[in-house]
Amino acid sequence: MAASTRLYEALSGETVQASSELQQAIAGDLPVPTTSIYSKSDGIVNWRTCILRLSATAENIEVRLASHVGLGVNPAALWAVADRLAQAEGHFKQFDRFGPFAIAYAPAEHAQSA
Questions:
Q1: Closest to 95 (Cα-Cα) out of 41, 87, 103
Q2: Where in the chain are the domains?
Q3: Model confidence over 9-57: pLDDT tens digits?
Q4: 3-state secondary structure the chain
Q5: Measured between alpha carbons, how far is 4 from 76 in angstroms, rounded to an integer?
Q6: Model confidence over 49-107: pLDDT tens digits?
C-alpha cells in the first residue's frame, strides 16, 4: 500500500479498497480543461509526475529554467496561467507558445505523456 493511501486513510477515516469507486474516480482524466505547468529544473517535484495524458482539453506546458518556488513568480509561468484563465468557458484552446516569453517555453512535443 502506498504511503499516500495510508495517509489518506488515516486522515479521512475511510478505507481505500483495491478497486474502490474512489480509486476509479481519481484514476481517469479530469472532467474539466486542465493545464500542467512544470519545469524540468524544479528541484523538488519530479517533472514526470506533472505530465498529463494529452486530450482535447488537457495540455502540458514546460517552463524552462524555473525553480520550484520560482514558478510562482516566473513571468513566463504567470503569462501561461493568465492565458489559460482568460479562455472563455467551454472554448478550450491549446496554449500558444509565442509572444513575449516564447523562448521560456519548451516545444509542445517535449511535453508529451510519459
A1: 87
A2: 1-28, 31-111
A3: 899 888 877 666 766 776 778 889 999 999 999 999 999 999 999 999 9
A4: CCHHHHHHHHHHCCCCCCCCHHHHHHHCCCCCCEEEEECCCCCCCCHHHHCCCCECCEEEEEECCCCCCHHHCCHHHHHHHHHHHCCCCCCCCCCCCCCCCHHHECCHHHHCCC
A5: 32
A6: 999 999 999 999 999 999 999 999 999 999 999 999 999 999 999 999 999 999 999 99
Question: At 53, which amino acid appears?
Answer: R
* Residues 6 or more apart in contact with residue 3 via CB below 8 angstroms: none
Other beta carbons within 10 angstroms of residue 67's beta carbon come to 14
Residues contacting 31, CB < 8 A, separation 6+: none
Tell me the C-alpha distance between 48 and 38, whole Å. 9
Residue type, 103: I
Unique residue bearing C-alpha cell 498529463 = 52
